[in-house]
């Protein structure tokens, strides 16, 4: 997302207690330019405090970003799509896909359903539709109009909690680089749990503050940006998923050194090791709703 390049604006904000343990005792974590992150003294979750209210966040994506945001997504969607596909492969999505499609016989049988929350211009959804999935998306940025009008996708341009999807609707939910932007990820995960079928899966991709790159760059970390309200580690995100009754099954990561942070001869082996040893600064977690 082009958030790091967008202007920082000071609108309405509020103090947000820790969503993981409910406490309100924090200590400084990352001091960035014009904003900062704090760490919960009890569970270690890192978050912005105070945070912009939801209305400010929605306005920022739908109005302030406007066509600039859409242009950015379109210019980079081929790269973003490839990264998403690689992450899903690492997390076992395509093995799961094969299992879900196994046993579908006859024209009357429904293919599996997937909901992509934060689907941008719908590139991944279009790819999944071509693979036989029944696809639905949620996107509050101008990308939603593009996905609907150009790609003819079913994409809702309101927050997930306002969509009113029936319970037990989807086999799979995808949320790539979304959860860190939300005021209350616990509410989001609870709604995701409700609309997933028993035995369904959620794939969550988000920066990992416990990764190697985050540890060595501190406040200069590429994911310590204004629009990120939470910076999860695999431990804190796994705990939040458990709190909402999900069972974490897999966690993979990548990203050793950001472009420009080191020469190419050093970046390549660092990226390779980060993925092999699973200490990258971006992670994908696959979690299951029990049957």
Account of the 3D structure:
- With 291 residues, this protein is of the alpha/beta class.
- It has a single domain (11-101, 111-288), classed as Rossmann fold, CATH 3.40.50.150.
- It contains nine helices and 13 strands.
- The protein has helices at residues 54-64, 66-90, 93-101, 123-130, 143-149, 185-195, 212-217, 234-243, 264-277; strands spanning 13-14, 26-32, 35-40, 46-48, 51-52, 113-117, 134-138, 155-156, 170-176, 196-207, 230-231, 247-254, 282-288.
- The strands form three sheets. A seven-stranded mixed sheet has the order 8-7-6-9-10-13-12, with helices on both faces.
- The longest helix is centred in the first third of the chain and has 25 residues, at 66-90.
- The protein is globular and about 55 Å long.
Number of strands: 13
Cα separation of the termini: 35 Å
Task: Describe the main β-sheet briefly.
Answer: 7 strands, mixed
Count of folded domains: 1
Question: Over the alpha carbons, how many angstroms does the gyration radius reach?
Answer: 19 Å
Count of DSSP-assigned helices: 9
What's the CATH class label? Alpha Beta
Low-confidence stretches: 1-10
The run of helices and strands is EEEEEHHHEHEHEEHEHEHEHE
| Shape annotation | globular
């Amino acid at each position: 997302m082009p958030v790091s390049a967008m202007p920082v604006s000071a609108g309405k904000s509020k103090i947000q207690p820790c969503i993981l343990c409910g406490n309100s005792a924090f200590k400084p974590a990352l001091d960035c330019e014009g904003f900062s992150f704090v760490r919960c003294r009890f569970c270690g979750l890192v978050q912005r405090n105070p945070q912009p209210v939801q209305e400010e966040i929605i306005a920022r994506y739908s109005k302030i970003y406007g066509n600039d945001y859409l242009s950015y997504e379109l210019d980079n969607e081929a790269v973003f799509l490839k990264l998403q596909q690689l992450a899903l492969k690492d997390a076992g999505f395509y093995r799961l896909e094969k299992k879900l499609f196994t046993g579908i016989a006859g024209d009357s049988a429904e293919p599996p359903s997937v909901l992509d929350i934060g689907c941008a211009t719908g590139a991944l959804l279009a790819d999944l539709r071509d693979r036989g999935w029944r696809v639905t998306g949620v996107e509050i940025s101008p990308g939603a109009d593009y996905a609907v009008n150009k790609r003819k996708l079913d994409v809702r341009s309101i927050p997930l909690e306002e969509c009113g999807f029936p319970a037990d609707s989807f086999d799979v939910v995808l949320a790539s680089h979304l959860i860190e932007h939300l005021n209350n990820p616990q509410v989001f995960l609870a709604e995701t749990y409700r609309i997933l079928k028993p035995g369904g899966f959620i794939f969550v991709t988000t920066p990992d503050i416990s990764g190697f790159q985050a540890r060595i760059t501190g406040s200069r970390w590429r994911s310590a940006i204004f629009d990120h309200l939470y910076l999860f580690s695999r431990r804190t995100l796994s705990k939040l998923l458990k709190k909402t009754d999900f069972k974490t099954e897999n966690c993979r990561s990548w990203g050793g050194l950001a472009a420009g942070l080191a020469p190419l001869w050093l970046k390549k082996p660092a990226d390779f090791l980060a993925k092999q040893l699973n200490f990258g600064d971006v992670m994908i977690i696959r979690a299951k709703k029990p049957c």
